[in-house]
Structure formats: structure tokens, C-alpha cells
Amino acid sequence: MISINKELLQQVTEGARKSERLRMNHNFHYGPDDLMQRMLNAMEPGTYIRPHKHENPDKREAFFALRGRLCIIEFSEGGDITGHTVLNSTEENYGVEIAERTYHSIVSLESGSVAYEVKDGPYDIANDKNFAAWAPEEGSAEAQIYLQSLIVKLGLKVG
Predict the structure, then answer these.
(1) For labelling, which of 18, 84, 95, 111 has a CA lying 20 to 30 Å from the CA of 64?
(2) Can you list the domains of the chain with their CATH numbers?
């Protein structure tokens, strides 16, 4: 049995806070070949997750808020926002499932936010994510500008 408790969430959160990327995973799956990838994903405000989709091979993905607030955003093929939802377990908006071939991103809205993430496997870094050509690369100067534009466009409150 794997326990997901306050201590584990805090450990992963501390790792995210110390990470240059402001996020940290804690994997529960047995390795990249596991057909169901399961992990904790701790994300701090300011982390940028470049919009991407999972296709060829197609994969579904689900996120459940365990702590904090996270906004899941879906996009059209051209980069227009087609939907979003703020996950917050204290407000009873627990999770979302994202269909394969759907561009999406996640924005952390509160320090200490942790999601339980489930995705079809296996994991192969060469074909896991198809990044959106219309979105800036992670680590680029434009990435933070784009992230802030999403927050403003959706009227999100960070903090």
C-alpha cells in the first residue's frame, strides 16, 4: 500500500520550492514501461508548463488537486483558450481528465499546490509530449510573459 499523506506532500513541495523549475514529481509507477503513470506533481506559482498534447501515441491524462489551487487550461490547435477550470479541493472542484490530442497547460495559483496526476503509459521522452509551436519554450524569456498573459486573460488570482 502506498500512503499519500501530509508529510509526503510537504516533502515534494519542498523539492519544488528548491527546484529551478519550481516543480517536482514523486512517481508511484514502477518505471517508464508502466502502462499507467501515476505521480504527485508539486507546482509553485511561476512554474511554466509549456502547452502540449499527447498524441502518436495518444494518451489521456487526469489531474486531482490534493492541496492548493491549480488552473488547467485547454487550447485549440491555433492556441486559443477553449476552456479552463480551477482545481481546489477545499472548494470541491477536485479534478479533470484531459482527452488525448488536446493542447493543455497547468498554472499553479498557490504556493504548496500538489496534484495527483495519472497518465497512460508507457513513458518515452522522445514522444511523450507534442509541444505547441505557438507557445514559448520553457526557460525562454518569453515563457514568463506568456504565463502572465494567461493569468491576466483568465482573470486568475495568484497567491
Answers:
(1) 18
(2) 6-153 (2.60.120.10)
